[in-house]
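note to self: dont lose this again. the chain is below, predicted strucutre after it. 486 aa total, dont forget to put it in the shared folder this time
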Amino acid sequence: MEIYNSLSRKKETFEPLHEGRAGIYVCGPTVYGDPHLGHARSAITFDILARYFRHKGYKVRYVRNITDVGHLENDADAGEDKIAKKARLEALEPMEVAQYYTNRYHDCMRLLNVLPPSIEPHASGHIIEQIEMVKKIIAHGFAYETNGSVYFDVEKYNHTHAYGKLSGRILDDMQTSARDLDGQRDKRHPADFALWKKAAPEHIMRWASPWSDGFPGWHLECSAMSTKYLGEQFDIHGGGLDLIFPHHECEIAQSVAAQGCEAARYWMHNNMITLNGQKMGKSLGNFITLDEMFAGSHNLLAQAYSPMTVRFFMLQAHYRSPLDFSNEALQAAEKGMKRLFEAIQTLHKITPAGGGEDPTVEGFIQKTYAALDDDLNTPIAVAHLFDAVRFVNAVNDGKDTLTATGKAKLQQLFDGVLTDTLGIASEQQQTGNTAILHGLMNMTLEARNLAKANKDWAASDKIRQQLSDLGITVKDTKDGTVWSLE
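---
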């Protein structure tokens, strides 16, 4: 299998460190808000990678982390922790916020048929490992302590190693373009980044360390957790394209400074979802959560889209290419998925014409797997599945023939690729019921909000209690009312 390595900037043949095994680490979400389309694309991309390795016979250890501490505003070394800020605004404990949105994320991943990772470590649960890694980096001369905070010495590291090798950035250019941030005066170089931050008096999330009561830097957590569960060297590190710099660049430097070697042998990055060529974002007003997708409640949506439609839509572009959102593309995905499942049902009903191999079917199989072996080229693989659909329909119409062996292999192709690898569930009724559930919840919450507006607190509380009895948690936030399945 060929995969594109972001580090070498070329396709390379995947050769695992351990024969028959694949170790994968993927940066998961920072859990301070509702999961959105960007979360879905990364999760689906690496879910397909792990599924395909298993389909090819590999034993896979797939680690996807949860960031619940240390990710500060604007991805900087200063400012408020994103989860702590959410907790302050909603008068909650930070871990209450983290748990709530972790549950929301898991709910959406189940609907999208994203399989759970082998291990899902939380940053807050690995403070000891992060402190130990900081100690190693200091001992090796690549970090320094200032006023209770510890910073990575990028300039010193760059003398003997190549800082910027993943992103292609040059250290001198980074100094020229560095932002003037609070806490910058504690650094020896503007590009230095925090390994450990001393907590301000008002900072909620803090732990004891040899340097201060504080918290780990955002970049450190992934280096520490990937090492703990996959070893000092492992096969693949994945994440979104927006993480290449600074997050993944810093991870490489930390691992080399602590361990003397690079951790990941292959770096894979999925591209962004865009709207009219522009990256989706809350500030731009084009941000769509997964709940809004499933319910059709965003003003950019022409209708509700089932989780399987959203997943199938994601397959229409190569994971390294931008994926532009449009209702037309989603509706086309919905129709295309329906054609696939109809063809599968038709295939079951076809009476084969004799036995023996079927060269046409062998061609579909070879081309489909060749596409997946070519850096998970899902749009080409799906195109070959549609070639098989046209063939099935031609056989059904009496315009072509299919042998018994060919029929069995076609069924295996649809099962092995469409279901097992691409993760498109064949339970259409299940996905339809999901959209109905979200629609009904929107109606129910509208009725509750109307009762609250009329100060009919008894009716409002009754609706909330009835939903709770059904296993549905309702939460009022400053951004509106949200719900989740318990």
